[in-house]
Amino acid sequence: MDTIDRPPLSPDVADRFRALLPPGRALAAPEDLAPFLREERGLYEGEAALVLRPSSVEEVSAILRLASETRTPVVPQGGNTGLVGGQTPRSRSEVVIALGLLDRIRDVDPVGRTMTVDAGVVLSRIQAAADEAGLLFPLSLGSEGSCQIGGNLSSNAGGTGVLAYGNTRDLCLGVEAVLPSGEIFHGLRRLKKDNRGYDIRNLLIGAEGTLGIVTGAVLKLFPKPAGREVAYVGLASPDDALRLLKRAEAAAGTQLTAFEIMPRIGIEFTVRHTQGARDPLAEPHAWYVLLEISSGGSAAEARALMETVLEGGFEGGEIEDAAVARSIADARTFWRMREEMSWAQKPEGGSIKHDVSVPVALVPRFLREADEAVARTIPGARVVSFGHLGDGNIHYNVSQPVGADKVAFLARWRELNEVVHAIVADLGGSFSAEHGIGQLKRDELARTKPPVEMELMRGIKRLFDPYQIMNPGKLI
Amino acid sequence: MDTIDRPPLSPDVADRFRALLPPGRALAAPEDLAPFLREERGLYEGEAALVLRPSSVEEVSAILRLASETRTPVVPQGGNTGLVGGQTPRSRSEVVIALGLLDRIRDVDPVGRTMTVDAGVVLSRIQAAADEAGLLFPLSLGSEGSCQIGGNLSSNAGGTGVLAYGNTRDLCLGVEAVLPSGEIFHGLRRLKKDNRGYDIRNLLIGAEGTLGIVTGAVLKLFPKPAGREVAYVGLASPDDALRLLKRAEAAAGTQLTAFEIMPRIGIEFTVRHTQGARDPLAEPHAWYVLLEISSGGSAAEARALMETVLEGGFEGGEIEDAAVARSIADARTFWRMREEMSWAQKPEGGSIKHDVSVPVALVPRFLREADEAVARTIPGARVVSFGHLGDGNIHYNVSQPVGADKVAFLARWRELNEVVHAIVADLGGSFSAEHGIGQLKRDELARTKPPVEMELMRGIKRLFDPYQIMNPGKLI
After folding, report:
1. Each residue of A237-277: pLDDT tens digit?
2. Which end of chain B has less neighbouring CB within 10 Å, N or C?
3. pLDDT > 80? residue B3
4. Could you tell me the CA-to-CA distances from B391 to A174, B228, B357 in Å, in that order?
């Protein structure tokens, strides 16, 4: 039976959960629960019986032991910044386990370049602690001021640093997790090489809390770049952006640390709706690229590499205009154009989102075909397609036609998804590049995954979670 | 029942396997089988009923379907270069599936920087094909002229490029595999971001053929460095080597592409037993480091970085002497000292091997403690501990005392393993860093893995391979 149809948690069982924690760490009053039930896009408004706030792995273990015994469905939650409803509870039969009090940075090893952290540590704190140690933790995304590393791991978050450093999965050497039985998976290994059996760590990463609860992790740190250069480039087309990407990779190699693409309309929305935002270029261009080169060697080298790339791009004809950041303030201004682009769509009315990836070389073709299909499906709809060209990952968002009815437009969410995702599938792409599956794409996953893979996934789910208590209704 | 105790494959079933392939591709004569039954260290001498040589994924699928139906145990084999007996069949009940005829490079995508290959392609061919496309496939290891990428993936091979580029797992975007049922897992995705459900790819990678047979892969390619500098450094101790590593990482960042450590005795063995090998330094040193810096920017930059590192190392007191390669021939000579070190131990008699990793910062302590323990256990034994300091991965090999009896010395293999591995475990390390488990370390894995992890591994094995036909007696 879907847990959404189950009766509410009984008062007896609720009391037993409460008794596992110190006073004040089990929330039940509606006003206390509220922040844990809403997600930021407003797509899901949840319900739950309790929110439990453990502060240690042992408390998480005790909670899951009791949940297994009483068959109580649980929903792990980090910073509540997920975009697919994976963290939102669905009924009063469910208990939210909020990880925010597991917030210790357990260890920083500057020689082995690792940091061991609790799952509830906020990403920006991890970035700052790495910086203090003279190192870099390169995971960077819009919600870094409030998302927690446990959620980043559980959703295998992406962000703007993936081009050079990989997804969250690639930034993690080991995880500690509590399994549904309450048993602890002690996988906090600080090893760069460890070939002892099946890769259970990578099953827990990206499982969106459906196989267990990540409670700690060993993260990889990187040498801090000696110099960083940021350029904001105007171009005529995604094809030109791709040519510039190839040029930048050839010149800068692994020192190319960001390559983001933005359309003119996104720049207009951002300038219109973000206080203090301004377009760094004098004339409008059809497309823009935010390009970052970070040199391990020196600031001069980063500058020289950036000059090589931009000069080549002008000569090769793919760049129409470019501005190079002359100060940290400049760099912030440039980055802001990219970072505010998600939010700047809100005041323009309803927006139907896609988080897709295709092979990098096929991005221009994807954009052409998807734009045509959207124009056919909803004439007047305004496509704001931006994101991580270097990873083939585009946030293909569609704003409602000017003056259209928001509710009527948003009612076509699934229909438009199908149109766009069909093109993605045709190109060998993914309809979930970096945001995960959650509630939003669960049916689509089941419908589109090859049956042999769905069977293996279901088998893995049964193996880890025989009573199906972990984050029901999400992912699988 | 362990398949090793099973009766030989029946002639009827053997005929059914033969009928699945064109003539000449099922081998049964002892002289034809022989090369597939021996592994290069001579630790295992196997037996098998048949060797099948499919040349397509469909043929592999047909073989596994029949194997499932007839409950015939199968042993996948690539280049037969594994060091733990994972590829060696164990009885005449077993059928070897040799993947060497699946040898197509299916696609090279220079923009997305990917290469799609069959499992049987030899690693050096992949390196060459990447080079021709102006790109780099950075996996590099001693057996690269004969090992196959399917084996590299199945054992998650390491090698000398891990420091900058990661293990084989990190170099792969997607795999295609045939499951024990004969069903094909179509996972040849060329996507840098794809969060659609559980990470089955990483279960198949590193599973040593116990969950299915990898038949193809999408590999990541990297920009080719513009300049490469190699230095051969003499030092007093592993502590000094660690200081130099930290210095090199701080200066070169991700452009530090190799950092290998070697002891004096290893240099002596190599010079003594390798034709044309010579020590590049005039005076002997207790320890040596092979240091490689590859610049994405330019040859001049690589030179400048190398100068910075070496000057700093001399001033800081951790370097006693250093030679920088002035030509490609020099660089080959330097690398040869490292590459021949495994082989150069053979003429010195028996050698008991360990492939261990510890957190990088703990390598000097590990070496001190292990050397003391070995001296106590087998006085006169000669430790040749070398390898990938940057990854914390040491090939801690122990050559017999001069004049000792080889057979008697090798009889103490397990005893010495236990002594060394106890120290590794104490330091939070792994007794299988990059060579895998195979037959050699299977008992040790079962004995030392936490029961909760062994249970999950067994469950995963049952899920993928309900009839337990895949590479029995290996890993799990």
Report:
1. 999 999 999 999 989 888 999 999 999 999 999 999 999 89
2. N
3. no
4. 15, 20, 8
**Distance between CA atoms of A7 and A16, rounded to whole angstroms?**
17
pLDDT of residue B291: 97
**By the 8 A CB rule, do B346 and B274 touch?**
no
User: Are A253 and B226 in contact (CB < 8 Å)?
Assistant: yes
**Mean pLDDT for chain A?**
96
Min distance B282 CA to chain A CA atoms (Å):
31
Tens digits of residue pLDDT in B96-109: 999 999 999 999 99
Token reading at B199: 């990470």
β-partners of residue A299 are none
B133 CB-side CA count, 13 A:
24
* A50-52 sheet: strands from edge to edge: A26-27, A50-52, A95-98, A74-77
Q: Is the ipTM of this complex over 0.85?
A: yes
DSSP conformational letter for B90: B
Determine whether the interchain pair A428/B190 forms a contact, defined as Cβ–Cβ distance below 8 Å: yes
Interface contact flag, B199 A203, Cβ < 8 Å = yes
Given a contact cutoff of 8 angstroms between Cβ atoms, the answer to whether A43 and A440 are in contact is yes
Strand A135-136 with A256-263, pairing: unpaired
Question: Any chain A CB within 8 A of the CB of B270?
Answer: no
Q: Where are the beta strands (DSSP E) in A221-286?
A: 222-223, 227-235, 256-263
pLDDT at A1: 56
Q: How do strand A114-118 and strand B184-187 relate by DSSP bridges?
A: unpaired
Across the interface, which of A295, A392, A460 has its CB nearest the CB of B192? Answer: A392
* Residue tagged 């290959």 (tokens): B117
Q: Among residues 302-321 of chain B, which lie with CB inside 8 Å of chain A?
A: 304-305
Please say if the pLDDT value at position A198 is more than 60: yes
pLDDT at position B1 over 90: no
CA-nearest residue to B464 within chain A is: A456
Query: For residue range A417-465, what is the model confidence (pLDDT) as tens digits?
Result: 999 999 999 999 999 999 999 999 999 999 999 999 999 999 999 999 9
d(CA B160, CA A13): 55
Nearest-by-CA chain B residue for A188: B428
Q: Which amino acid is at B128?
A: A
Residue B293 in contact with residue B302, Cβ under 8 Å? yes
Radius of gyration (C-alpha) of chain B in whole angstroms: 23
Question: pLDDT-derived band of residue B6, with 50, 70 and 90 as boundaries?
Answer: confident
A318 contacts in chain B (CB < 8 Å): none
Decide: helix, strand or coil at residue B204: helix
Asked if the Cβ–Cβ distance from B191 to A114 is below 8 Å, we say: no
Residues of A in contact with B390 (CB under 8 A): 192
pTM for this structure?
0.96
The string of pLDDT tens digits covering residues B270-310 is 999 999 899 999 999 999 999 999 987 789 989 999 999 99
Q: What is the pLDDT of residue A254?
A: 84
Rounded distance, CA B78 to CA B97, Å? 9
**How many Å lie between the alpha carbon of A280 and the closest alpha carbon of chain B?**
27
Q: What tokens were used for A424?
A: 């993605």
Phi/psi of residue A327, each to 5°? -155, 170
The identity of residue B88, as a single letter, is T
Whether chain B has a CB inside 8 Å of the CB on A397: the answer is no
B-chain residues near A195 (CB < 8 A): 155-156, 158, 206, 430, 432-437
Strand-pairing partners, residue A186, are A176
Using alpha carbons, select from A328, A204, A313 the residue that is nearest to residue A250: A313
**Is residue B253 very low, low, confident or very high in pLDDT (cuts 50, 70, 90)?**
confident
The fraction of chain A above a pLDDT of 90, given in percent, is 94
A254 reaches B (C-beta below 8 A):
yes
Cα–Cα nearest to B209, from B18, B436, B10: B436
